[in-house]
Amino acid sequence: MRRHLILCLITICSIISIAGISSAEKTDSAKDVLVIQGKILDSAGNTISKANILPYLNGKPFLAVGHGAEAEKDYVTGKNGLFRIEIPTVEDKIKSGKWELKVTRPSFKPSQLSTLKILDDGVSEDGIHRWIASASVQLKRIQGAAFWIALIVFLGVYVLIAFEILHRTLAAFLGAALVLVITHTFGHFDEAYNILTWDQALHSVDWNVIFLLMGMMIIVGVLKGSGVFQWLAYKSFQVARGQIFLLASVLCIVTAVCSAFLDNVTTMLLLTPVTLEIALILKVSPFVFLMPEIIASNFGGTATLIGDPPNIMIGSYASLTFNDFVINLTPVVIGVMVVQVIYNKFLYGADYHRAKVEDVPKMISFLKEKYKITDSKLLYLGGAVLLGVIALFVLHGIFHMEVSVAALFGAALIVLLCKMDIVEMLEKEIEWPSLVFFIMLFIVVGAAEQTGILQVIADWIKDVCQGRLWVAIIVILWVSGIASAIVDNIPYTATMLPIIAFLNKSIPGAESGVLWWALALGACFGGNGTIIGASANVVTTGIAEKAGYKITFGQFVKEAAPITLISLVISSVFLLLRY
Predict the structure, then answer these.
(1) 325, 360, 490, 495: which could join 242 in a potential S-S bond, CB 3.0 to 4.6 Å?
(2) What is the DSSP letter of 47?
(3) Cα distance between residue 565 and residue 302, in whole Å
(4) Cα(142)–Cα(212) distance, integer angstroms
(5) Residue 178 pLDDT more than 90?
């Protein structure tokens, strides 16, 4: 009897215990979570990253358990402007409370409280009862302390570059460092001084551009050891057979083609010394050949994605392929090159007539001996790699591969196959000042974008165009052409990229991409206008000056400005007729 009684007591206790556990599990599983998700945009419809999201309950900030006073900083939007926050709470608060949302971010006016509509999403497999609320909030920019500081730095960098007060790399370096140090010192105490954070600075740099330039510098650095570029100059003279006008024309074509598939700066670095020597032999001013070559390098570089730094930047930003540039820009480049050859005859005809070669065969023999291929194996191996890289450029849209990947692969392969010293290549062939300039410039422009400076410019252009695409084409082309003649076209292009992206969404018909081509033609062709308009101009005239041949700012403008204006007129007609 006692035994049965004990068994009954044990059974009853077990049942009570199991029931208690089940009840506890049921209580624990009855978790309610409010999920708030959505997107934060600016007035132009662009997404905003790093925006702070703060939920309100019954008119007061709701601090979730475990978040405390830092809740507002815990809820931020990602790079795509999207956010999703999950707030553990109880069903009564979710159903009966008034839930609202507030969004804040430096350089923007805080949003008004937006009432959220709560929907029951039911209980999921993990036993959590979710309630869903969605919101899309638009923030308006304000011109506060960050805006004005960024504007002063932005304009200051441009002035330092345009008037050559400081080396352009140092000017951009100083500007980038300044906006970052202000953000992380003054901005730490007051968000009004939050211009550009370190993370935002890293994201503002277009690393595709940086690595593409780096890869191509290495490839060209290896190839030039074969003597192929000097050999091309000799072949140009051989084809011309002593006819100076024909020689100048052939040199222009060679320069344009090389610039299209290498880049115009590298091309001029390699061809300028040879051109100087040919001019010395012919007893004419080297600028009779160098000026047409400079202009041809900027024209030829416009034809492809990799030919001119502005094109590299545009292609990377807008996800345009190598073929897109060839199809849309090569026709106008060919037309402009034909006009340039005629212009050369008109401008330098007297110089061509004075230059004489008394013994053409002897001169050809001299140049053949002096400028010959010095390393055939290097040429074949390096040339094969270069052709492979160009093939990948053409096909990169199919493979969804950035052009920088092709360039870096080609650079690594050519160094390996040609048994070059990688340390020496990195030290001597890569123009580190140019790459650092690009990186720092991207950061300065990123600060201008984050604080709303570029949006002000974009709004002004939009108001001028009033939704008319043909007006936008003309404005972008000619403003780009004139601005690129005044300042280096690289910082100008970096500034315009987000502006064109905004205009493409706000002007009917611009989605065809025509404004990208207007920017490319304006920036590249306009760079011919002055001695500081493009990097190739600066490099070439600098080499000539070291050799004792100096051209002044005024002389350069006098010879280059007319063909620059003609090229912009031809581009205007081409774009308006085609689009």
Answers:
(1) 360
(2) B
(3) 16
(4) 37
(5) yes
pLDDT of 239-296, one tens digit each?
777 788 888 898 899 899 988 887 777 788 778 877 887 887 777 888 899 999 999 9
Report helix, strand or coil for 101.
Answer: strand
Q: What is the pLDDT of residue 22?
A: 44
How much is the average pLDDT of 128-138? 88
Name which of 476, 457, 574, 481 is nearest 534 in CA terms: 481
Q: Are 339 and 567 in contact (CB under 8 A)?
A: yes
Rounded to an integer, what distance in angstroms lies between the CA atom of residue 579 and that of residue 508?
12
Which residues make Cβ contacts (< 8 Å) with residue 265, sequence separation at least 6?
309, 434, 535, 536, 539
* CA dihedral of residues 206, 209, 213, 216 (deg, nearest 10): 140
Tokens of 399: 């493979």
108-109 and 119-123 strand pairing: unpaired
Side chain identity at residue 83, one-letter code = F
The DSSP output letter for 97 is S
Going along the chain from its start, the domains and CATH numbers come out as 30-141 (2.60.130.10), 145-204 (no CATH), 235-270+277-357+464-579 (no CATH)
For position 4, what pLDDT does the model report? Answer: 53
Count CA atoms closer than 13 A to 454's CA, side-chain side.
Answer: 22
Angle at 540 (CA atoms; ends 423, 221), nearest 5 degrees: 25
Q: Classify burial at 110, counting beta carbons within 10 Å of its beta carbon; exposed 0-12, middle 13-18, buried 19 or more.
A: middle
Is the model's pLDDT at 488 over the cut of 80?
no
Burial of 217 (0-12, 13-18, 19+ CB in 10 A): buried
First-to-last alpha carbon distance for the chain, in angstroms, is 103
What pLDDT score does 11 carry? Answer: 52
User: What does pTM read for this prediction?
Assistant: 0.75
Alpha-carbon separation of residue 341 from 239, 284, 357 (angstroms): 16, 19, 21
Residue linked to tokens 């211009």: 195
CA angle 269, 535, 172 (to 5 degrees): 125
Contact 367, 231 (CB under 8 A): no
Instruction: Mark 179-203 as b/e (b = at least 16 C-beta within 10 Å).
Output: bbebbeebbeeebbbbbbbeebbee
**Hey, which bits of 270-390 come out as E strands?**
none
Q: Is 428 exposed, middle or buried (0-12, 13-18, 19+ CB in 10 A)?
A: exposed
**66 Ramachandran zone, left/alpha/beta (phi>0; psi -120 to 50):** left
Identity at 500, one-letter amino acid code: I
For 331, residues 6+ apart whose C-beta sits below 8 A from its C-beta are 574
